[in-house]
Batch of 2 targets.
Target 1
Amino acid sequence: MTSADTLMGITWAGMTAYVILGGADFGGGFWDLAAGGTRRGADQRRLIERVIGPVWEANHVWLIFVIVVLWTAFPAVFAAVFSTMYLPLTGAAVGIILRGAGFAFRKSVEELPLQRLFGVTFATSSILTPFLLGTVAGGIASGRVPLGNATGDLIHSWVNPTSILGGTMAVVVCAYLAAVFLTADAARYSTPRLVEAFRIRALGAAAVAGALALAGIAVLRKDAPTLYQGLTGGAAWLVLLSVIAGVAAVVFLVLRRFWPARVASVLAVMSILWGWAVAQYPYMLAGQITIQEAAAHPATLDAMLVSLTVGAILLVPSMVLLFVMFQRTAPGDGAGDDVTPQLPADLDRPPA
Amino acid sequence: ADSGDSRSGARMRHVEHLGGWLLQNEADLFAARQQMALSLGWHIVIACFGVGFPLLVLIAEWRWIRTGDDIYRLLAHRWSKALAVLFAVGAVTGTILSFEFGILWPVFMERFGEVIGLPFALEGFAFFIEAIFLGIYLYSWDRLPPRVHLLTGVPVVLGGLASAWFVVTANAWMNQPTGFVLEGDEVVSVDPWAAMLNPATPPETTHMIVAAYMVTGFGVAAVYAWGILRGRRGRYHLIGFSLPFALAAILTPIQIGVGDWAARFLADYQPAKLAAIEGLYETQPRAPLTIGGILIDGEIRYGLKIPAGLSLLAEHDPDAVIMGLDQVPEDQHPPVGVVRTAFQIMVAIGMGLLVLSIWFAVAWWRHRRPPRARWFYRAAVAAGFAAAVAVEAGWITTEVGRQPWIVWEVMRVSEAVTDAPNIRYGYYGLLAFYPVLTVATVYVLRRVGSVPLPESEDVRGEDPRLREVRQ
Ligand code: HDD
Ligand code: HEM
Ligand code: HEM
């Protein structure tokens, strides 16, 4: 394994983290939108807000991580993708702003109409953004991004069957992960009504994802034959793993075993992502440039490997601390179906 | 021929057949630069608070733990809510910048991404640390013992500092590109550590980090100065004003010193930029310093000329020869008018803030309280905005002063830009978008600030040290 391969592996691990952690946060926005009227959806919205509040910013940094490692270690590919894909990426960037700002703003205002406005902004951009990022992924996977300065087709590189599949799949996967995660979270706060609500949603999303994957086979076969060959060839075992994990997640959901369901759903998504990577290996842009050819000079790769190692030593314990702190709330803390806001209202109490 | 050649062939034909094409391309280049400037200029103000605000919050919380005075806890807790909003907006408006590097400047990134990528990757870790511990800090006021809670804020402060340092080293490199060997258009060897530690890094990073703390200090103090002007006289406003103002006031003279360092650095390393900043066209010994005035036909008129002033400031020697723009090929002149105006605004604001800081210091030293004059508080409100304007002006000086280069004397901006057509429409879209984002952000911050305060003596009452602020 060369340093280029190692760095690609790290980039892809970062991508996986973003898809799973960031994806679940986007999915939270999806369910926020689907939660129904202001009163009826209030519990669900509060749970979503409470669960993603402390973590979404850290989860979002995975995207930054992937981008900066990409432009440092594989600058030609970064330039090609971002210049050709400038339309969906500009849209996604604006979507990211709207999502983050909408979420933070909604928490900070009291008036109902404003909460609704910011809430809808948060929720719709949580769907738009993964969709656009998914179309970019589809364009790359189907070999529509040529090397060079905006040399690809500026429209059809991301408006094509594989991209549409990628975009839709991204939205569905986000919703699926979020529903599975939220079921477990609702159980942790012992809010039976919410557990049931999200369990049903998780099962529904799983069914849609499964159906979409089946349809996807046909699309890829016609529209992205190289990828299709890889997925049915060298990467077939990962695809199989994904199917098994997906089915297992459904079984666990039915059995109300929420933690195993969570693990299985993550595994199902992970193995598809890595299946794509393996199917394309050693190419970074299908048929054009390999990981080795795209890599920066050795001095840069070494500097990156050193920095990433040192960074990981700082990062891993911090990450663990964050998740442990907010995943280990004593049961009953949530007091029935009423998920109380995190900060007690009386914190601003008059000084003694 | 490969696709690149046929493309440029196509472009030549365009130029021949469609006279308007070149103009369109110019419009796109201009739009790309404006878009970059708009997004950066927006992000930077918020980012200043991302760097500075955590320190302020921690100082207040630390004072609470030390003194047991609940007013500090009240301040720290309320500030942390504003910080949460600002941080979220800073994080997402920073993200679009990293997209724009690829969307707008693919040639720059393709060639030099590997040279300047390292600090961005390190910055990524700083962001992680910042975001993780901010999440912990904001959501654990009531879960952790006070001292432990305070401790969880420390990585936020350090992460903010580190991220500002790293990102500015990347910008410093654009001013002083080092750490690579270029053969033709190809980078043939790289030393990313040397690129990060280029000669412009020390003055630029220092100046920026101090600026961030100043913007936060003056900005937060301005909110309380406004309250005092509107008749609030309680201890809450006294401390809410004095703590951030004192932080900023201490840094102001330091910042002017650092600014002087930055200017002397230019004299040695980017003389063309200094010449543009000072509107100096002729190379000369005993170069004068011109303050104010307007640029007419390549000459500064009606300015106040201080003989040998520039030589003194830049080289600490009245007889030093200072390079003028006459030594720079015409097509490499930065736009003097913009650069010089921006620079003068920054310096004028710096001096104004210094006067205000001294006023505050004298009052505090003599009477242990802030000044009483209403004018002082009016000026303090203005200072909150002025500090942010100084940052914008400083960046315009730096960035526009680098023109026409994206990488100083290595790559022109026009070489770096994307070939994608019609990117100006993206810019127009953002031009409409950012004002909306601004209004929403300001509105939400005001809501956060207007959450009712507890009805206590500290808030409603009159503190003797503020009582006599004239109505
Ligand atoms: C609170 C903000 C603030 C204040 C009061 C000042 N500056 Fe500044 N200045 C900045 C904020 C700033 C900045 C926004 O942070 C810049 C942009 C890039 C940088 O490194 O710092 C900057 C850039 C900058 C540059 C260009 C550096 C370069 O291109 O490499 C010079 C020469 C100065 N400054 C000089 C000064 C002087 C002589 C000041 C004296 C009053 C001064 N600044 C006050
Ligand atoms: C670390 C940070 C920064 C980097 C890497 C960076 C990079 C760039 C790039 C690539 C461009 C486009 C090319 C050009 O016109 O020169 C640019 C332009 C510009 N940037 Fe920066 N920038 C940074 C910080 C800032 C900040 C914080 C501001 C805040 C105001 C700023 C203001 C501008 C302006 C005004 C332009 C347009 C120049 C012109 O139109 O002539 N930059 N910068
Ligand atoms: C001098 C200029 C800059 C400074 C001082 C600065 C500083 C900061 C700080 C402190 C944050 C995190 C805190 C917050 O969000 O409030 C932040 C966020 C961010 N900045 Fe900047 N920034 C600058 C310019 C840039 C540039 C040129 C880029 C482009 C790559 C950039 C990319 C980002 C990103 C991606 C984030 C979000 C990270 C997160 O999720 O925490 N920044 N910036």
Target 2
Amino acid sequence: MKAFTFERAASPAQALAAAARAPGARFIAGGTNLLDLMKLEIETPQHLIDVNGLGLDKIEATPEGGLRIGALVRNTDLAADARVRRDYGVLSRALLAGASGQLRNQATTAGNLLQRTRCPYFYDTAQPCNKRQPGSGCAALGGISRQHAVVGSSDACIATHPSDMAVAMRLLDAGVETMQPNGARRTIPIADFHRLPGNTPHIETALTAGELITAVTLPAPLGGKHIYQKVRDRSSYAFALVSVAAVLQPDGTGRVALGGVAHRPWRVEAADQALPQGAKATTALLLAGARPTEHNAFKITLVERTLDSVLAAARSRA
Amino acid sequence: MNHPAEFTLSRRGLLQTGAASLAVPVQLAAAATPASPPAAAAESSRAGVPMSVNLTVNGKAQRLAVDPRTTLLDALREHLHLTGTKKGCDHGQCGACTVIVNGRRINSCLTLAVMQEGSEVTTIEGLGQPDNLHPLQAAFVKHDGYQCGYCTPGQICSAVGMLQEVKQGIPSHVTGDLTAQPLLSPSEMRERMSGNICRCGAYSNIIDAISEVGGVKA
């Protein structure tokens, strides 16, 4: 690990001021992804700002009937919150489908959103990677790409976003609340939070330099059946090949989002309209323009079949 | 085998000597850090200077001076010589380093010691002693829940945390009804223990051991 200096911030204002003083500094909360990458010298911050003392660890009701989830709420606590289990089951299910018990105890809500890809070529510093070293090329193109993106990818990057939680938040139209170094607050719709790779796969989110996530908001509950189905190479503690998050109403309408297929949690609002017609019609809209590689073309079929299974489960639980 | 007094150097003694020689002040860090570190805020380290951190480990207050890069795992093993906690993958994938921090099981390899200021840490050494085993330690012995034993401290700390999580009503991926109190079953235990890898494959005996303590028929 490269050497760095370290400080503990006691308030969001203090954290923002620290970040403004040290360009290139990183906030650290759970640390489960950042420290992993620092050990491999994929991330080499010169300064770390520990934000665990910021007090952003509450889940509160909003006046609009939704929830505001503090940035530091641990994945375990979010999944176990009684309101989340009752009203946002798809979020609870998505969280519980990810990582291990130990990691969920440490990982935070904001950190989960900011997870970096698990593309093996991003992790292998001997390989070119436009995300790790802009302009160096993409070893996944032409490499072994079974795990990689099938839609929304570019000639510069075919990595996927690894989070399960973010897929459920995309489905639920969450908002990402932030503070900028000048103290300005804004809410970034989750749909605009994660970027497609384009020619700049190293820029992954809409956050600007030194901007701090303070909370994630959920709109009022949608009702319906909440399902998160994840398909992976082993039955626990593995990243998704594909995952389907859905909220389905008794009349067959609903909404759907996908994980494991793109550089960001994947949702196409127009595809929701096709849900009453079934998995085939919906998948055609969800994955229109897909560009799979020879190794991951199976994901197209897998999405359709997983969605079919989700729709059947919703009907049987009616 | 178990007569360390007869030998001038035990394996543990060697480890401690090795660790002590690593503990000389680290000066090379200064060269790799920026020439002008950021202005100090409330609590900030200076480049190349060890940072102090206060921990309570197995009930005992400890004050350490560590390079900020030191993980909690390395602080436990190399600074406090509590070598029961094992380093397997060092990337949060195997669970060998699992300890209990403020009542929760975590991977000690994926947190920095300086991030744990004021934390209460319990390691395998704090759960029980050879003449006074924790019920899970005794159950692992009884059910032969290991072969090589390297993953065992992590498995036991993880199981202690896991049983507590079930008691607290925290659901898992295999919990059928999210709104009900989860029940401890073999499938629940397997899912909840999936962050602990055993390369010897002692899983069925591990489940038997945890089942006995958790009051489940495996």
